[in-house]
Amino acid sequence: MSAVLAAPAAGTPVAAKGAPFRVMPGFRLSLGFTIFYLTLIVLIPLSAVFLKTFTLSWESFWATVTSARVVASYKLTFGASLIGAFINVIFGGIVAWVLVRYEFPGKRIVDALVDLPFALPTAVAGITLTSLYSSNGWIGRYIEGVLGIKVAFTPLGVVIALTFIGLPFVVRTVQPVLEDAERELEEAAASLGANAWQTFSRVVFPTILPSLMTGFALAFARATGEYGSVIFIAGNMPMVSEITPLFIITKLEQYDYAGATAIAVVMLVVSFILLLAINLLQAWARGKSGK
To answer: Closest Cα to residue 161, out of 76, 277, 270?
Structure first.
């Protein structure tokens, strides 16, 4: 074998020694496009929401966002979103575990069904859930007839709808982490005398905890702004099953744009605070797990 390597052809750019090699050159151009795109899609619309809200006086703003029905909608929207996201963390984690760790007939079909809430139009999902869980629906008739629990047109129906649309976020976040997890650590724990619960709680759970919290944050963020799949099954009864996005739509239909943006600003601020707290917990979990 010749010890002499072929020299680069004339005119071929050669990276300076120690300089990082970039597949896509043009850092300044790509960074500028990124900032421009985020400004156009995210910052300008959010700024418009706040600027429109500032046209209200403080008294008008406070009266709009603290009316009894709006406050009740805050409690339902954020409460149901948190409950739905928490349910998805538990059962979505189980679904991800089964899809990764077990082989069974129809596994690919089950895996594809997880993405159904992504592909299904939200209005179709809302109508379908209402038909299933109404008093004469396939499922609702037995729940109400046997257990005496009414699902459709109640806050429970809102929780079910938000759980439905949030499931894929948890499963698709946890699934790749479980696939990359080192099973040798579980085998080592078992060989050292750890039982199944100890292996899960001390080896598996710390590994997937950051991804579970990420899925929780994504599911919660999606649920707080959900409208189409909730509006039908909620029933929109005052002080009972009215969601906050409904009030925003109502204000827009009444051409009260400042009132709509005022309610939206409250939702943005509360959602930002909750997501910030979740991200801080996620960072703490990553630090504890050493990743």
So the answer is: 76
